[in-house]
UniProtKB/TrEMBL annotation:
Keywords: Signal. It comes from Eutrema salsugineum (Saltwater cress). Belongs to the 'GDSL' lipolytic enzyme family. The keyword Signal applies. GO terms for molecular function: lipase activity. It comes from the Eukaryota. This is Uncharacterized protein.
Amino acid sequence: MANNYSLASVLGVFLVFTLFHTPITVSGQNIPTVALFTFGDSNFDAGNKQTLTKANVPQGFWPYGKSRDDPNGKFSDGFIAPDFVAKFMGIPIEIPAALKPNVNVSRGASFAVADATLLGSPVESLTLNQQVRKFNQMKAANWNDDFIKKSVFMIYVGANDYLNFTKNNPNADASAQQAFVTTVTNKLKNDISLLYSSGASKFVIQTLAPLGCLPIARQEYNTGMDQCHEPLNNLAKQHNEKIGPMLNEMARTASGFQFTVFDFYNVILRRTQRNLNYRFFITNSSCCGVGSHNAYGCGLPNVHSKLCEYQRSYLFFDGRHNTEKAQEMFGHLLFGADPNVIQPMNVRELVVYPVDEPMREVWVPTTSATVQASDSSSSSSRGYEFY
Ligand SMILES: *[C@@H]1O[C@H](CO)[C@@H](O)[C@H](O)[C@H]1NC(C)=O
Ligand SMILES: *[C@@H]1O[C@H](CO)[C@@H](O)[C@H](O)[C@H]1NC(C)=O
Ligand SMILES: *[C@@H]1O[C@H](CO)[C@@H](O)[C@H](O)[C@H]1NC(C)=O
């Protein structure tokens, strides 16, 4: 009896200790309460284009959203990458489209609109500059300065500028290309600066995909199944090379400016070149659409689109947007990948990085891990390329 009694009290003491001891912090749970703001084109559009245009948009109809039974204006069969990043940041509600009336923007909003560009004035869309101005209009009523400074600003834009340029200038020589890339990237820098003057300090910039490998580009330029349209890839590469150095300079000269660069170009390229390593069966044609690469017209009422049976086998859902399975992968990579994919830090590290503190690391070119579009034979045995 005595033994049982003391055992009970020992257990009791343990119980009390367990109940009142500070809980062990589980990784991912101590993320500060901040917001996620996204800017750019259709890849990050959470329904703004649908709100902006008077016409019916394909992304508002089945089969968009089909994996969630919810065609909500996003370009995927379900959620998009920022939805996953928001979830990993512990944000309890979906990041809404900023242009939609009566949405809850307390933990961020998407300002991205399909067809957005950096230059020009896109039809029924907004340039990045106009998106930033829209953010500024909404700021006072919704978010205070401290909250904005701690929050994450994700940007993906520029693809439409280069697709348009290539369409209008199919024979542009190297110097015309360089001049255009310089104009586009300077505009991007100005718009990021404007966002920084608006109080933002934590930036996630995504490099452009290998645009010539998008199913819609392969289809429109008749590249065949295993070739990409290289002029578009070259423009994307020239653009991407400028991003890191540009942001390094901003971090050096603008106090409190913090950033990271997500290497989307190689994330897509690796999946198209070694699809089975990443568990995609089809990466060069899309799941939904018509044409040689099934890349045109998904969701359009007057087009008899084909729809693949199993979305999760595909990298691309339509001619230029990824399936939910791929978007979820991107979300994980953005949030938690190593510097081979996102550098100098991932979103998880960026969120907890003290505000106003200078970055201890800079962006560096990753030549060794960069996959060359033309050289798919280069060692599938080197582990570091598999991310
Ligand atoms: C908005 O969402 C937050 C959760 O992030 C919640 O606390 C708040 O009550 C919501 N506001 C409204 C008006 O629903
Ligand atoms: C596309 O290119 C043409 C010709 O250069 C230009 O006039 C137009 O503004 C561009 N459109 C967009 C949306 O950038
Ligand atoms: C898909 O495209 C990549 C890159 O262009 C190429 O290496 C690969 O062979 C293609 N796959 C198929 C099945 O054609």
